[in-house]
Amino acid sequence: MRILQVLGSKSPGGGSQEHTRFLSLGLCEKGHEVIVVTRPGKIGDWLRSEGLETIPVELRDRRRAIQTLCSLIQDRRIEIVHTHNRDADIPGIISGVKMKVPLVVTTIHAFLNRDKLGNPKMNFPLWKYNRLLRRRPHYIIALSEALKRQLLEEIRIPSEKVKVILNAVDLSRLKPLKSPEAMIKEVGGEGKLIVGGVGSLIRLKGYQYLIESAREVVKKVENVMFILVGDGNYRKELEKMVEDKGLNRYFHFTGKVSHVTDYLQIMDIFVHPSLSEGLPRAVMEAMGMGIPVVATKVGGIPEVVEDVTGILVPPASPEGLTKAILELLSSAEKRKRMGEEGKKRIYKDFNSRRMVDETEEFYLNAINDKIPNGKKAYLWSDSCRR
Q1: 218 and 296: one domain?
Q2: Is the pTM value of this prediction over 0.85?
Q3: How many folded domains does the chain comprise?
Q4: DSSP conformation class of 375
Q5: 312 and 184: one domain?
Q6: Domain that holds residue 128
Q7: Residue 338 and residue 363 in one domain
Q8: Are 40 and 16 found together in one domain?
């Protein structure tokens, strides 16, 4: 098959970027021709360094983007257009439908129509986007059952158009580059139990509630520290909260890092206090490295975190976080058992190979279902296999 992946990002490192990377690489390994279109930026160099053909297009300039994508579809005889993120969905879907591409599909990576705190939001541009999703793509992939429910109930997408293909982790990437000893020294964690989180430092991720919780945790456990891996527009406010509560000696902010696994390997507990989520890759990566998880019971998180792999707490609840963190800090045996069970679960059910296989099967079934009279579509993959 000749597949055009359209990604509405210009920087590497996020969940949809990593998802598109390992999906595209996996499809190439299976013999398909894959082209990735992104917004101009560092993400292009990142994807090209992985061996993916990547073309920069300013997707926010929608008129020009549609013209460019239509030309690309025609010149490369694209059979499938697959979009990721709103900036890609609008020009990508319109271009694919306009050019009568056999299959136009979009993946929904996170809850739609939400503000910075995860509360429902609606305005005219979002209304138009929702209408586009209802009317134009042939199918929509949801990365969790929770996302599917929102698409059906709130966006009113017909159920026959929605396919769940659970998010996944590229297990080959869960390999630290630095030693645990070096990383512990870097963060000043010698002799301490380390509670950590990974993600964008924005309000939606709920780290303000972790800081509230930390104030109570350190009263009970002196040899503990907290590390937050990532960056974002809420970082200064979080750092001020830490300072105002007298917690500076207990916290370490890493900023943006290239290899998250270097930090994951030294965590005794992984905390994900988000207010809204689809099916977060950060949680799955932590579980894949054998770390017990404390996470909020929102979105698709309960689909991956179970009682035997971690502890779920209500969102926006410092009290819930405190109780769960203290429970795990008090029992090395429980941390070990939950970490082992979580790792088994990720390797079995949430690995990227499974996700690539399911997506390829979905493509083949969907594109052939759309051919009249039961005739099989002629696909690029067929010619590769002859």
Answers
A1: yes
A2: yes
A3: 2
A4: P
A5: yes
A6: 2-168+351-385
A7: no
A8: yes
Q: Reduce the DSSP state of residue 331 to 3 states and report it.
A: coil
CB atoms within 10 A of CB 365: 11
Task: Give dist(CA 56, CA 256) in Å, integer.
Answer: 23
The Cα 322–Cα 120 span in angstroms is: 28
Interatomic CA distance for residues 245 and 33, integer angstroms: 54
Together in a domain, 194 and 305: yes
Q: How far is CA 145 from CA 178, 185, 229, in A?
A: 36, 41, 28
Per-residue model confidence as pLDDT tens digits over 230-243: 999 999 999 999 99
Residue 148 and residue 45 share a domain: yes
Cα–Cα distance measured from residue 360 to residue 304, given in angstroms and rounded to the nearest whole number: 23
| DSSP at 318 | H
**In the sheet that 53-56 helps form, which strands lie side by side, from edge to edge?**
53-56, 33-38, 2-7, 80-84, 103-108, 139-142, 162-164
Residues 63-98: tens digit of each pLDDT: 999 999 999 999 999 999 999 999 999 999 999 999
Other Cβ atoms less than 10 A from the Cβ of 132: the count is 17
Taking only the tens place, the pLDDT of each residue in 8-54 is: 999 997 889 999 999 999 999 999 999 999 999 999 999 999 999 99
Q: What CATH number does residue 255 fall under?
A: 3.40.50.2000
Determine the Cα–Cα distance for residues 163 and 287; give it in Å rounded to an integer.
Answer: 25
Element (H, E) at 206: none
pLDDT at 368: 83
Q: Which residue type occupies 172?
A: S
HSE, CB side, 13 Å, CA atoms: give it for residue 168. Answer: 25
Shared domain check, 218 and 98: no
Residues 103 and 120: their CA atoms lie apart, in Å, by 31
Residues 73 and 96 in one domain: yes
